[in-house]
Amino acid sequence: MPIIGHWIDGHTTAAEQTATQAVFNPATGQEIARVALGDADDAARAIASGQAAFAQWSDQSLARRAQVLFRFRDLLAANAEALARVITREQGKVLSDARGEVSRGREVVEFACGLPSQLAGSFSDQAASGIDVFTTREPLGVVAGITPFNFPVMVPLWMSPLAIAAGNTFLLKPSERDPSASLLLADLWRQAGLPDGVFNVLQGSKDAVEAILAHPDVQAVSFVGSTPVARLIHQTASANGKRVQALGGAKNHAVVLADANLEDAANQLAAAAFGAAGERCMALSVAVVEESVADQLLDQLIAKARAVKVAPGDHPGAEMGPVITRQAKDRIEALIGSAQAEGARLALDGRGYQVEGFAEGFFVGPTVIDDASPDQAIYREEVFGPVIAVVRVAGLDQAIDLVNASPYGNGTAIFTQSGGAARRFRRRVHVGMIGVNVPIPVPVAWHSFGGWKDSLFGQSHIYGPEGFAFYTRAKVVTERWPAGASAASYHFTAEP
Ligand code: NAD
What we know:
Elements: E1 3-4, E2 7-8, E3 11-12, E4 20-25, E5 30-36, H1 40-59, H2 62-78, H3 80-91, H4 95-112, H5 115-118, E6 122-128, E7 131-139, E8 142-146, H6 154-165, E9 169-173, H7 180-191, E10 199-201, H8 206-214, E11 218-224, H9 227-239, E12 243-247, E13 252-256, H10 262-274, E14 284-290, H11 291-307, H12 326-341, E15 345-348, E16 367-370, H13 377-380, E17 387-393, H14 396-405, E18 408-409, E19 411-415, H15 419-428, E20 433-436, E21 452-453, E22 456-457, H16 464-470, E23 472-480
Parallel strand pairs: 1-5, 8-9, 8-11, 9-10, 11-12, 13-14, 13-19, 14-17, 16-17, 19-20
Antiparallel strand pairs: 2-3, 4-5, 6-7, 7-23, 12-22, 15-16, 18-21
The protein binds nicotinamide-adenine-dinucleotide (NAD).
């Protein structure tokens, strides 16, 4: 069985590993590799490598750093298919979606290529008489990224290009469930001319993360994953004096008003609920529908759900693949069962779904639940599977109240043809990312990404301008060049 190792100082370390964990192909259910489980010693080696590389990398000119980023961008484009195939093999999503993931990640690299202007700082000439003031943004040192299974290429690319562009060195701790893409990314950075030690990979799970959080040389932590872990990471990293941004889980509501184009809304809801088997933090898992059009929308949604082509991700025409593990499949199916037990109606039940020839694969069929309500687990919990729950409401204000009562605030969408209703909605909801007739409003790379409430712990959103701010700290210089001696002043001057 191949062993997927760490990447430290420009090369892999698989042969040195002992503790490992199985990696599966979710479509076949077969173990295909084992991944090294890093411990505190491995973490210390990876962090020492980044620490040693920091002085030289942070001293590189902005132009040279930009050249590496441009080359990395081209290598990502040239190797997009290889990356997509690795994603599909270990994560399960369909190839077309995996290609999209690589492309969305590459957009962040393209934004990071503009690092000279992002890091230009600011200058105030003659801020006071004979005095100039300027601010520079300086890198922090070794920064770490801890990432989830659902985007093994895109989420590391939300973090590392900006961290590295800003002059930091970056330690990636990828998900242990689909770890191979991290090594491909590491090799592309190497080919792009990034010096050894600037991008390291530590494989593993909880122990590896705890070692990173405890290490005094790690200056900042970016985390993306589930809410309980995000909360823990935020608390621990903060207590250890680190800068931290921890993005958590979600329960995204889509509001469908009676004046919406229902066919379009049903299409968008189906794609946003069942795409990537619902394993997106921006998936729409609750449809909040005005009662007067609920039956009509439900009929269309069920028809769409039945038509989804569920197959292994590398099969031609596949629209939805398996979920990540057998445990995930069991958990999702148990939640579907609980919905029925708690009074909802299973309009389309995806439990026990069979894909011919792949009986051991971790497939769950598209599932539509009607008459869901906030007291049910299917409504409250993040299912992270191909399940959409429909809640019927009297109108917009009740829908807004529902969205705001959720402890999560990652994404939401409204479907309507009324500009006034959309405006009222976007101004009143307590959510970080809002789509108006757009189902999955993941911001483009030059805006930042982040949720509110239990979907993000810390002050900073990820990538975009906030990403550069997170990975740098300000230095403010106040400067004067007197021609001769001036009198000592023992007080702050009252006049500018
Ligand atoms: P997860 O929280 O289980 O794991 C995320 C990372 O944390 C992994 O690298 C894992 O090894 C590590 N980890 C897991 N348990 C840990 C523990 N007890 N202590 C320390 N580290 C631990 O998340 P996942 O299942 O890989 O990913 C799915 C979750 O991520 C969903 O909740 C989804 O909504 C969320 N997500 C959020 C966003 C966002 O932008 N808000 C994006 C993608 C995914």
